[in-house]
């Protein structure tokens, strides 16, 4: 009976709730629509507005109102509701540049809508992202450690093949370096992906930085380097063929990642860089086994043999270094004035110190080892240790070229081209420059089905989900040439931006093409360039959906060569 | 108490999303029956009055006739069906493909647009058949034409086309 009673109570409760909901007036349950703003989107203003108005088709409540300011900081905005939208106080004055207001509001039916209002004061800059540069230092250090361990692992194998047997300590050191090279290469790969994207370390847990990193030559250069270290660390490394193989692998892993790997001189730059890297690997990587061999019987012998090979290696190193600097083609004055030139000068000073130590070892300390072994041995040890330390510093300085574009790299922004397609229609999308900045976008449609062309309406929607910006939506205009165009639109961050193109092909049929473009972080800075990886996911909303088609967006190479 | 909570949760999750779009009053019908489709238009295009309502009739829905409407003219666009359908013994190869109502409906009002049609057995039981709707106003158009892809939640669509779920025919006694 009690069970029955409670069930009856439950049924009544349910009926009551249904009644309550059924009587909610349905006239209020329509979506609000964004109708415009003051200042208008993409406006270029002379002075900061005293207030910002967002206009909607009906009263809305604010969920999120956030400013992304030109100085990279964020701020919350306060708003007053009006019958036709929201009235916001003036944005915090943070100087000239691009202001972004991320808004998300809810209408009476509980349906949230969001978007971003982008306008600029004085000039279009794009907001700088705070923490972007935080990703640079870890990337440099991780790469430095990964390359250093590879150099020591490969250097030990080379030493064993060319100079003489490794002492047990040197062999152990080589193996440890080889084992360390793999995890370090993976860390470097992830850090490089974060650096490319300009994201914080939390993004490591998503696949995006890894995808971006592995899609570019430097990314798989890390893996080639790790492979070289592992082969070098294996037992069969005394065979010269294996030593040659790991040297080639190790040198290529460095050659694919430098500035020399692209640009119009790459067919000269890349082989030069490879020789440069090979000489460096032999020289710096051979020094630890050399120190270890000093305490053994054949110390003097090993020194002489090392010196015989090291001399040509140093000549190759210097000659290729000069060659790489020459094909850059910058004149001395601009070179000296640039940060890049200062880094190069620092590197040259360090190399000169290394050469001086090597000369000291060869002309003074090596002969002294024959006459007074005791004191000369410890001097040699100190001197070679200093040489290793200097070599590591040279490598670190070389990594720091990442921070500064080489002179002559400030060329016009490169366009980005995307190819998106569905089963029925294909779109060639051209962006006049890599974001951030004001960008013209043009879209050309092609298709096999003539009934669907030309489209009746085209709408482009951009969003940067990681920065929480967007969607920013634009209707494209049809030009006489048959091209659809929007712009200039201000995309305030470097991305990755997702782009949705809604193509109305008949009155009742819309095809949606989707893609993500991930311009490399440094495209905005200058020196790095490659085929930009574009993960393109396409989707069609007429009942079929296909995803994960990976295409490439070609980026034109910059005038840029090796350092 | 549990019942209240469950009911509240179910209602909170399911009800509000459906109201704003263009929908059928009865969003399901049995295969093989003649269906009276009543579409509700709840608002204009961003505040502007609706001047035209266009409904595309999907393949497999035949013998369509609009319900006339006071103050509105209705136009019938016919065309060839994708296949021949049997309509009570008569083969039908062409018929209504689109209905167009022309008139004026203020953004402040709600109105219904009705037609009837036979749901042939080519419409599989358990599937949803979509009737894309274009609502034209002086300032442009709202297009309720998005059809969810396989596995996609229709609630994720911005402007979903009204759908009609096909139910199993009543058992014959």
From TrEMBL, chain A:
UniProt membrane topology term: Multi-pass membrane protein
InterPro entries the UniProt entry points to: CopC/D (IPR032694), CopC_dom (IPR007348), Cu-R_CopD_dom (IPR008457), Cu-Rt/internalin_Ig-like (IPR014755), Ig_E-set (IPR014756)
Top-rank taxon: Bacteria
Regions that span the bilayer: 140-164, 176-194, 214-234, 241-260, 272-294, 306-328, 340-360
Keyword Transmembrane: yes
Compartmental location: Cell membrane
A UniProt-annotated Pfam family: CopD
CopC domain sequence ranges: 31-120
Domain (Copper resistance protein D): residue spans on this chain: 302-399
Keyword Glycoprotein recorded: no
Alphabetically ordered keywords of this record: Cell membrane, Copper, Membrane, Metal-binding, Signal, Transmembrane, Transmembrane helix
Name of this protein: Copper resistance protein CopC/CopD
UniProtKB/TrEMBL annotation, chain B:
Domain YncI copper-binding: 21-166
Pfam families assigned: DUF1775
Signal sequence, start to end: 1-20
Keywords for this protein: Signal
Gene3D superfamilies hit by this protein: Uncharacterised protein YcnI-like PF07987, DUF1775
Coiled-coil regions, chain positions: none
Protein name: DUF1775 domain-containing protein
Record organism: Hoeflea algicola
